[in-house]
Write a structure and sequence with these properties.
By secondary structure, the chain is an alpha/beta fold. It is about 25% helix and about 15% strand.
């Protein structure tokens, strides 16, 4: 089987690769065969692969198994291929249903990284931590620029956008320097700077690594109203992490139960608004669907004009989702806009009556080297099983480890049993892929 590595072309910012040159060379030494599609933009140049004996080609027509990062444009899909990438289809995302439809029509198989999980449903391969890195840095940049637009100059105004740093290590070094100055230079009028983080998964872990570069004192949600209150003698920065029990309450007064909340969210009411008056910044990292209450609504923003909340870093970036003010996604060079509660529209920049929204939807591409190296270290262990599988067999007979088999969304032009619920979201003849 010939394994192809696709060039990424979603936009000029996308420079990641699923397998770095050293890992491809190591897999070739074990007998696997690769071809990598030439790219002028990839973080690793074509010559980095060629120097290690990897074939470089203009297209991947000869490949049987194609590895990528982002979705592949419909017009570039080829019949009968096995594709492995982040498909963004499991929530029946409307913008990707035509792509899924075309994969089925072409008799392709699709393995989605997002569904490579262990027996407890935990994802095994992801860029989530790196989304946290970039999202937190871009959120701090947004706050620094917003305060400056309001006439409040702080060391945070010197934070760069993530993609402007030569590496993540360089970003952390700069943030440590800024953090040391915050202790003495943050104006009394905004002490403590209070940052709330919704969620505690891998994205949040990346955010914490960034915040650890600053003089952050972590407090409990129960102490937020008291310790987050403005006080000239307070520490420069206080941070708080919110979990599900801090975001919702049982509608009928029963005890909070996390399993019940996930199974029956309709039995719970959103209460996150009680935290918002005490925050300068909210960072959203949660997984959300419309079954769950929102964190910030248009109604709350309209009723609380002039609130303390200055910036929302919506790393999850579900349009009009947990953050109802997230009206569109942004790009790394212009990561933020201001939500205007009067017109319910997005104003360019960081100045305006409502909170500034950081909503870059492809954050890991801002740290392409580190994110590619990390992802490749995990993926290289999965490639031999993907390559040795007989993809001509029926789905039930596919010889794959459980974590990979559960990630097969479609096989030979049909949705696999766990994903047949997507049929109702597709157009065309249901019998073709049911």
């Amino acid at each position: 089987m010939l394994i192809g590595i696709r060039r990424e072309d979603k936009n000029r910012w996308e420079r990641r690769v699923p397998l770095v040159p050293a890992d491809v060379a190591a897999l070739q030494a074990r007998g696997l065969r690769f071809v990598i599609q030439s790219s002028p933009n990839r973080i690793f140049a074509d010559g980095d692969y060629a120097a290690l004996g990897v074939e470089v080609a203009a297209d991947l027509a000869a490949a049987d198994l194609v590895l990528a990062v982002k979705e592949i444009p419909i017009k570039l899909l080829l019949a009968g291929k096995v594709y492995v990438y982040f498909a963004h289809v499991i929530k029946a995302q409307p913008y990707n249903m035509p792509m899924l439809q075309r994969l089925l029509e072409l008799g392709c198989s699709l393995v989605d990284y997002e569904r490579i999980v262990d027996e407890n449903g935990r994802r095994l391969i992801f860029f989530s931590v790196h989304a946290g890195y970039a999202g937190m840095i871009d959120t701090l940049w947004t706050l620094g620029q917003r305060w400056r637009a309001q006439g409040l100059v702080t060391p945070l105004a010197e934070v760069k956008l993530t993609h402007e740093y030569s590496s993540f290590a360089a970003a952390k070094e700069h943030l440590r320097e800024i953090g040391a100055r915050l202790v003495t230079e943050l104006p009394a009028a905004v002490r403590p700077l209070t940052i709330g983080m919704a969620g505690y998964g891998n994205v949040a872990r990346g955010c914490r690594e960034v915040l650890d570069c600053l003089p952050a004192e972590w407090i409990e949600p129960a102490d937020l109203a008291r310790l987050g209150a403005r006080e000239p003698a307070a520490p420069a920065l206080r941070c708080v992490e919110f979990r599900e029990a801090d975001m919702v309450a049982p509608a009928r007064g029963q005890t909070f139960s996390l399993p019940e909340y996930y199974q029956h969210p309709e039995r719970y009411t959103g209460v996150f608004a009680r935290h918002l008056p005490h925050l300068d910044v909210l960072v959203n990292t949660i997984y959300w669907t419309d079954r769950y209450p929102r964190l910030v609504t248009r109604a709350w923003t309209r009723e609380n004009r002039g609130a303390r909340l200055q910036v929302i870093g919506d790393i999850s970036c579900d349009i009009e989702g947990a953050i109802e003010l997230t009206l569109r996604a942004t790009m790394p060079d212009e990561p933020s806009y201001v939500y205007d509660p009067d017109t319910e529209t997005a104003r360019p920049g960081v100045a305006g009556p409502g909170p500034a929204i950081m909503a870059v939807d492809n954050l890991p591409c801002e740290v392409p080297l580190e994110s590619s190296e990390y992802f490749s270290r995990v993926l290289r262990g999965m490639v031999p099983a993907l390559a040795s599988c007989d993809w001509s067999a029926a789905y039930a007979s596919l010889d794959l480890p459980p974590e990979l088999k559960t990630a097969v969304i479609a096989h030979r032009g049909e949705l696999t049993p766990a994903y047949r619920y997507l049929t109702e979201h597709l157009k065309g003849n249901p019998d073709h892929h049911s």
